[in-house]
Amino acid sequence: MQLPTLLLLGSGELGKEVAISAKRLGCRVVAVDSYDGAPAMQVSDAREVIDMLHAPSLRRVVRRHLKPGVGGGFIVPEIEAIRTEELLSLERLGYSVVPSARAANLTMNRDAIRDLAASRLRLPTARYAYAESAAELRTAITAKKGTGLPAVVKPVMSSSGKGQSVVTRAADIDAAWTYAVSNMRGDRPRVIAEEFIEFDYEITLLTVRQRRVVAGRRVPEPRRTLFVRPIGHRQERGDYQESWMPCPMKPALIRSAQRMARTITAEIAGPEGAGLFGVEFFVRGNEVIFSELSPRPHDTGMVTMISQDLSEFDLHVRAILGLPIPAIRYEKAAASAVILSPGPIAGPPEYPGLGRALAASGVQIRLFGKPSARKYRRMGVALAVAASAAGARKAATRAASLVRVEPGVTSKAAPRTR
Ligand SMILES: Nc1ncnc2c1ncn2[C@@H]1O[C@H](COP(=O)(O)OP(=O)(O)O)[C@@H](O)[C@H]1O
Ligand SMILES: [Mg+2]
Q1: Which of 42, 155, 323, 344 has CA 20 to 30 A from 284's CA?
Q2: Where are the beta strands (DSSP E) in 19-85?
Q3: How far apart are CA 272 and CA 262, in angstroms?
Q4: What b/e sequence results for 308-345 when a residue is b if at least 16 CB atoms lie within 10 Å of its CB, and e otherwise?
C-alpha cells in the first residue's frame, strides 16, 4: 500500500517529531509554517511558507499537495493559529483533517471548548467568565457569581502562557487586562477569567482515538479509546518546564479523568475522527478538574520520546493512518525538562555544554534547530530515564541546565577573528 501525504500545519518541535514518525512509516511529509527553516521543515519532503491564518493561502497549499477523499492524504494541524473555518470548508470538499475540522475549530479559542466542556458536557472546570473590556473583567472577577480572587486571566486566543497572569488583588485587574490584550492573537479583545485552582498536581492524559479503513471506507474503530499513563508536569509563566511519568494518582481518579477525556474527544472528533489528544486536568484532593485539551500531540508529552516504545508522535501517526496500536511498553520512570533561550538571538544559536549533558547515562537531548531565538523560546528538551520519577526529573533538569543557548558565530555582532 502506498502511504499518504501528511500536510503539517505548523512546523515546530512537535511537528518535527510527527514528521519523523511519519517518515519512518514511509509517508510523504509537507511542512508548513510562517517562517523558513522551521524544525519540521528540516526533516520533511517539501515545505511551504505561508500565513496559515490567510484562507486563500491555506487552500492553495492544500490543493497543491493533497486530494480529497480516502487516500488523498491528511491535513495535520500542529498549532492553534490556523484559519480553521477554512479547514471546515476543505473538509466539506472531502479533504481529511486530523482529527476533524471541528476539533481544530473548537480548540482554536479557549471560549468555544470551555463552553462545550462545562455547559454542554457538564465536565467539572474552574469557575470562569469572559470579558471584553477592563470593566467587564472587573465584574467577571469581583461580581457575586464571578471567579473571586485570586483569578487567572488569559486571552481566549493565545497559547504557551502568552498574555496569561494571576490576579491576586482587585487593584491589579486593569494591568491583567492590558497584559492579556497586548499579548493575544487575532483582533478580538476577549479574555477568560478563571478561578485560581490550588491544585495538588496537574496532568496531561494523552488520549488516542482510532479508526479503520475497510474496503476503501473509513469506519470507526470499535476498540476502546486508548490512554497513555498520566503525565505529571510543572508550569512557569503558563509554560511547561518539566514533565514526568509515572505520576502517582489514585486509580479511581485516573478512571474519572479517562471518562472525561473519552467524552470530550468523542464529541469533538466525531465518529470518524482519529488521532491523539492531550487532555489537561488539575487534581485537588479527590477532585479531577478539566482544564483544556489539544487535538494533537502535547508539549508535556515530549517525555514519551523516552518513557515508552511508542511516543505520542508514533501514536498520532498510527491513529491517523489506521494502523494497529498494541499495548505500550513503558520504562520504569522518565522525565523531560525544557531548554529555553535566556534572551533574543538573531541567528542560529550555539549550544555549548551539549557534550557534558550527554555524558550522563540514560540522558538524551533533542535540539529543535530553530533558526533564531527570543527570551524563553523553547530550543530543545532534555530527556532522562531512571528508577524513579524523582530521579528522572533530577537527571533531566540537570542535563537541560548544562546545555546553554548562546549566539552562534553568524549571529554575533563582531565576527571572530583568528
Ligand atoms: N484556573 C487555573 N488555576 C490554576 N492554575 C492554572 C489555571 N489555569 C491555568 N493554570 C496554569 O497555567 C498553565 C497554562 O494554562 P493553560 O490554560 O493550560 O494555557 P495554555 O493553553 O497556554 O497551555 C496550566 O497548565 C496551569 O499550570
Ligand atoms: Mg495548557
Answers
A1: 155
A2: 28-33, 46-49, 74-77
A3: 14
A4: bebbbbbbbbbbbbbeebeebeebebbbbbbbbbeeeb
Q: Is residue 139 part of a domain?
A: yes
Same domain as 4, residue 45: yes
Among the bound ligands, name the one nearest to the CA of residue 110: 1
Question: What Cα–Cα distance (Å) separates residue 401 from each residue in 14, 29, 276, 302, 352?
Answer: 21, 33, 30, 17, 11
Q: Is 301 helix (H, G, I), strand (E, B) or coil?
A: helix
135-173 confidence digits (pLDDT tens): 999 999 999 999 999 999 999 999 888 999 999 999 999
Tens-digit pLDDT profile for residues 28-68: 999 999 999 999 999 999 999 999 999 999 999 999 999 99
Q: What's the longest Cα–Cα distance across the chain?
A: 69
User: Given the CA of residue 110, which atom of ligand 1 is nearest to it?
Assistant: 21
Quick one: 5 and 89 in the same domain?
A: yes
**What pLDDT does 418 receive?**
47
CATH of the domain at 184: 3.30.1490.20
Cβ(82)–Cβ(108) below 8 Å: yes
- Compute the distance from residue 250 Cα to the ligand 1 centre, in Å: 22
Judge whether residue 358 has pLDDT over 60: yes
What type of residue is 179? Y
Look at the block and give the residue holding cell 472577577: 141
Is the model's pLDDT at 328 over the cut of 70? Answer: yes
Pocket of ligand 1 from Cβ distances under 6 Å: 126, 152, 159-161, 194-197, 202, 235, 238, 280, 291-292
